[in-house]
Structures are given as C-alpha cells and as structure tokens.
C-alpha cells in the first residue's frame, strides 16, 4: 500500500485505531477466520474492506487474515508505489492476526501453468488489462510475458484453493476481477464462502454474494446483476411514490456530478444544466453545427468503454469490448439514415496502449455522418442535448441517460441491467435488430424511453448514491482526501465516537443475517 502521509499523523492514526478495535472487538472463540484483501495501493479502498470485516467480527468473532503483496506488472501499469510494511502496520492496528504476502508465495513457487478454464479466463483478462490491450494479440500463447502471467495465475489459484480449506467465515474484497482478486473470489465460491464486495464511492457501500443464493451458472457479476434486479423490483420499485421526492433530488445532484460514478467525469464538463426540451433543442442545434451533422436525422452516440477493463466478467454479447466497438462502427458506416457520434472513454489512456480508438476512427474519417471525438472535448450539456439514442456495453451512461429521458441500448450487462432502465439485448442478432428498429422509430417521431424507465433510472440513482450508501464515521466519504486529512478524520473518530450507535453495525448485521445482496442504509423489508 502506498500512503503519502506525514509519519507522525500515520503513527497517531495507528495508535488510535489499535485502541478502538481492542475495545470494540470480541475475542475469537474458535479457529474461524475472515479473509480480507489489501492489494490496492489506495488506503481508502483497503479501509472499506477492513471496516466491513471488523463489523462482521462483532457478529462472528474470528481472526482476520489479510492478503497483500504486489507484482511487477501491476506496479508498472497501475501502482505508483506499494509498501507491504505499511499494510502490515495498518492490519495490526485493525486487529489483524495474519498477513500473507501472496505475491511472495507466487514468486517462490515453481508450479507450471495449467490449462484450467477458470485459470485461463483470468489470465487472459489480466494480461489484457496490464498490457492495456483491447484484445489478445496474435500468437499470444507463445509470448514469454503471457506464459509468465499464466503461470502466476495457476499459482494464485492453488494458493487460494488451499487457503479456503480453512474455516473461512467470509472473503471481503474490493474487486472480483483479474488474477489476484478474481481467483480468490472463485475459490471462495467453490468453498461456499460468502463474498463481500466493497465499493469505491460514498461512505460504506458493499454488495454480497452468499452461497445459498449463488446459482453457480454465471460469473460473480452475473449473479449479482440478477439479485440486484430482484431487490430493485420487490423493495424499491414498489415504493416509488414515497421515494419520488428524494429520487428527484438525487437525480438533480447527479446532474452536477456530486458523487461518483458520473462516467468518470469531473469539473464543469460533468455538469448538466438543461431543464426542459426547449433548452435542449436550442443547444442541440449549436452542437450539431459544430460536428457538421444533419439536424434532421437521428443522432446515435456510442460510448466506448475502457477497452481492457475486466473482460468477460459479466454477460457480454461480443468476444471483447473492442469487437463490439469496431463492429458497431462498421454497422454505422452502412446506415447513413442516422448520424453517429463515437466517443472514447474519459480515462482511455489508462486502459489502452494501442491507440485503438484512433485506429477505428481513421477507418471512417471520410464518412460524413460518422464522427469520432475524445469525450472530454464535449460537455455533458452538449452530449445530453445531442443524443437521441445512447449505445454502450456496461458503462454508467446506461443508467444516467434514461434518468433524463434519453434511451440507451446495452450490448452487455452491468449491475443495474435487470432493473428495467435501459434496452438490454440478449444476443448479437437482437442487438443489430434493435439498433435498426430504434433508428426507424426515432425517424418516425416515436419515443423510445418510457416514463416508467425514467422513473426507474432515477430510483436507481437514488439506490446507488443514497439507499445503499451507509453513512458511518468509520468510513469517511470517498472525497475526504488527501491522506493526512483522511487519517486525521479517522483519528478523531477512533478517539471521540463510540461504537454503540454507529448505523453501519446494524446495516451489516441486517445484510449478513438476511443474506441480502447489498448493504442498505435503512431496512427495505420493514
């Protein structure tokens, strides 16, 4: 873990945390352990894991085993530094019993790669992410760096399989993708161990996959998508009238990006100021002129996802995110009855080393009804005014756009895909057919998004940003930063706030005992 903090501030934080957890955790009664992942360099990510784990330990006294370590490729691609000794100190302060440097064990092992289906899937996804590749390259299996990645995944698989033979109460993890996280989640599922997946936004947010609700027929994210949809339908949508005013407030806040996610945007380009169709129409005319489009034709905006991000982790219609984007561009070239705007991801450079977006754009630079733009060059005001139909795979635009009356087609699943917000298609044939039908409908003046979808989308924004965000002094808002401010805030909590009235403990107990797929601020079943 990398932590640029004043050494005195860190030490006082550690001392305060140590005393707090010594006084607020029961002693373990047996050999049970809770496994907590601390692979991320950001202490805010790890903090959420540690706090949730300790909330569980108040319900089920157990020792805490921390998984950590760093590997060279992860360091080169994503981390700017990582100090295992800092992880050990923080783990000790949160009453951890054991710290396992997983990558040290991987490096010591000589186990050769195995062609197990699960191992290969995580190898492929991790290889693409660390190399920032939209697809696996030609002849990749013979490349030394791929072979090393494959061997590493095999060793991780074996380490985790052995670990989960212990009496494990739960796995608490910030991620469920890629080799170091994903293979731990797979081992937990096979061992019938509950998995708590904390989120990097708000205060304390977490999803849970419990073995009694795990069909085993899909990935972790597929299972979660179905379960979230069930909660939304039975617990949230049924209360739409009583939640209406607060959902409207959250929709307004989302317009000005007061909380993640907002398609990874910040600053003035993230703000939406449009209040009615007349304002939208006036701005649309201006933006259409800027792009050289024909204002009388439908404008389809295709939002490229981060092309190497967590490939194959939910249900996808295409072999890769790159295939979806390139094939959609090829389809657009054959359909001049619409105007097509293709946007890159705002964080494209963090996910692509191959100039994939530019290479696709170059193929169609002479096609007047197609435009390719870096997304950051257009404000949300411009995008929202321009777009008659949004197209994406699993990005957050598929819940944001419908909230403001703009229809979206999804060529893949996201966590909200069972909530009835967007047009979710089942296969490639349905995708192309839905695109064609949607263009025809827009040209005929038909509305593609219903009032119910708008209300569902706004309720989703409420659920994500409010209903499932448990406010607790033990986990400051994500935006409490830099590190010294975070540590000072936490130190004040540990020294001055008692645990007996912390709402998080009740929320965690409710989620855990009822086996609910998400942590909630209030009791949805009441």
TrEMBL record:
It comes from the Bacteria. This is Uncharacterized protein. The lineage of its organism: Bacteria, Bacillati, Actinomycetota, Actinomycetes, Micromonosporales. It comes from Winogradskya consettensis.
């Amino acid at each position: 873990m990398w932590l640029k903090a004043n050494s005195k501030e860190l030490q006082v934080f550690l001392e305060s945390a140590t005393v707090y957890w010594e006084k607020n955790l029961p002693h373990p009664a047996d050999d049970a352990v809770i496994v907590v992942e601390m692979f991320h360099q950001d202490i805010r990510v790890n903090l959420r894991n540690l706090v949730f784990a300790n909330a569980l330990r108040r319900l089920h006294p157990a020792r805490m085993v921390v998984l950590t370590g760093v590997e060279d490729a992860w360091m080169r691609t994503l981390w700017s530094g990582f100090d295992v000794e800092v992880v050990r100190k923080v783990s000790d302060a949160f009453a951890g019993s054991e710290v396992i440097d997983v990558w040290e064990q991987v490096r010591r092992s000589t186990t050769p790669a195995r062609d197990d289906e699960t191992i290969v899937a995580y190898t492929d996804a991790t290889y693409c992410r660390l190399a920032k590749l939209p697809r696996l390259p030609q002849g990749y299996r013979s490349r030394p760096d791929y072979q090393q990645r494959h061997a590493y995944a095999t060793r991780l698989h074996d380490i985790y399989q052995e670990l989960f033979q212990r009496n494990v109460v739960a796995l608490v993890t910030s991620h469920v993708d890629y080799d170091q996280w994903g293979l731990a989640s797979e081992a937990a599922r096979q061992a019938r161990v509950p998995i708590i997946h904390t989120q990097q936004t708000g205060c304390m947010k977490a999803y849970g996959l419990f073995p009694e609700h795990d069909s085993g027929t899909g990935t972790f994210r597929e299972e979660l998508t179905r379960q979230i949809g069930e909660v939304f339908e039975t617990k949230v949508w049924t209360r739409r009238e009583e939640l209406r005013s607060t959902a409207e407030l959250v929709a307004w806040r989302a317009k000005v990006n007061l909380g993640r996610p907002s398609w990874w945007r910040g600053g003035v380009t993230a703000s939406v100021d449009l209040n009615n169709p007349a304002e939208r129409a006036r701005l649309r005319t201006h933006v259409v002129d800027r792009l050289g489009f024909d204002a009388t034709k439908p404008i389809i905006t295709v939002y490229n996802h981060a092309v190497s991000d967590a490939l194959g982790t939910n249900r996808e219609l295409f072999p890769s995110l790159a295939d979806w984007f390139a094939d959609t561009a090829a389809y657009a070239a054959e359909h001049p009855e619409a105007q097509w705007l293709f946007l890159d991801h705002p964080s494209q450079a963090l996910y692509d080393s191959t100039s994939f977006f530019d290479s696709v754009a170059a193929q169609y630079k002479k096609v007047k009804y197609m435009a390719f733009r870096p997304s950051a060059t257009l404000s949300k005001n411009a995008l929202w005014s321009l777009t008659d139909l949004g197209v994406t795979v699993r990005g957050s635009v598929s819940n944001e756009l419908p909230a403001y009356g703009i229809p979206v087609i999804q060529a893949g699943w996201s966590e909200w895909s069972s909530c009835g917000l967007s047009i979710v298609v089942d296969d490639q044939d349905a995708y192309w057919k839905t695109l064609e039908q949607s263009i025809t409908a827009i040209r005929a003046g038909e509305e593609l998004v219903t009032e119910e979808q708008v209300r569902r989308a706004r309720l989703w924004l409420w659920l994500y940003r409010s209903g499932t965000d448990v406010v607790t002094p033990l986990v400051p808002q994500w935006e409490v930063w830099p590190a010294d401010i975070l540590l000072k805030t936490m130190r004040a909590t540990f020294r001055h706030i008692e645990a007996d009235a912390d709402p998080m403990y009740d929320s965690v107990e409710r989620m855990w005992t009822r086996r609910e797929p998400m942590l909630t601020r209030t009791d949805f079943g009441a």
